[in-house]
């Protein structure tokens, strides 16, 4: 029974450290973890255990030498359950610009009657981009509308045939530049 309690306490410690280090949860403190999980340890013993587990988590290994069997098993279980979440957290923290969350598009026909200008009739591509709210997004394209929700920015673009061809040409140029640096396999 003591092994089960020790394993639960260690799992709680690992999850608490992850909350603080990877998920920026400021409510989790070293004192809270000690009081809740290891009240029987002295402050020095707990600090040593906390620092050891924090270092192991930051090394992102499932197992490591110098650990007891229970500690190695708890660390392995932690990484099996948290690997994806930690990766996503690290990726989101490393982005400086908003990320593209979604894209939808359609082709419409604008007639001379609906636009008021016979020269503007014909097919147009309408595109809506959903961007993450990590920062301010500035778009240097004419004919866009921007709207916001709680955690996304939506940008609506309208392209005529010439603009679509320009975008496709630019994308082709980008792909060629990438291929010069990293050839496709």
Query: Biggest sheet, open or closed, and with what strands and sense?
Result: 4 strands, antiparallel
Helix share bin: 40-55%
Radius of gyration: 26 Å
Structural class: alpha+beta
Uncertain residue segments = 134-144
Indicate the mean pLDDT: 81
What is the terminal-to-terminal distance? 55 Å
Note the overall shape.
elongated
Query: How many strands appear in the DSSP assignment?
Result: 4
Strand order of the largest sheet: 1-2-4-3
Distinct helical segment count:
6
Order of helices and strands: HHHHEHEEEH
What is the strand content?
15-25%
Descriptive account of the structure:
This protein has 185 residues and is α+β, with helices and mostly antiparallel strands. Helices cover 52% and strands 19% of the residues. The chain is built from 6 helices and 4 strands; from the N terminus they run ααααβαβββα. It has helices spanning 2-21, 30-37, 43-59, 69-94, 112-115, 161-181, and strands at 100-110, 122-132, 144-148, 152-159. Strands 1-2-4-3 form a 4-stranded antiparallel beta sheet. Helix 1 runs parallel beside helix 4 (69-94). It starts with a helix and ends with a helix. 12% of the residues are buried. The model is unreliable at 134-144 (pLDDT under 50). Belongs to the COMM domain-containing protein 1 family. One of its GO terms (biological process) is negative regulation of protein localization to cell surface. InterPro entries: COMM (IPR017920), COMMD1_N (IPR033776), Murr1 (IPR037351).
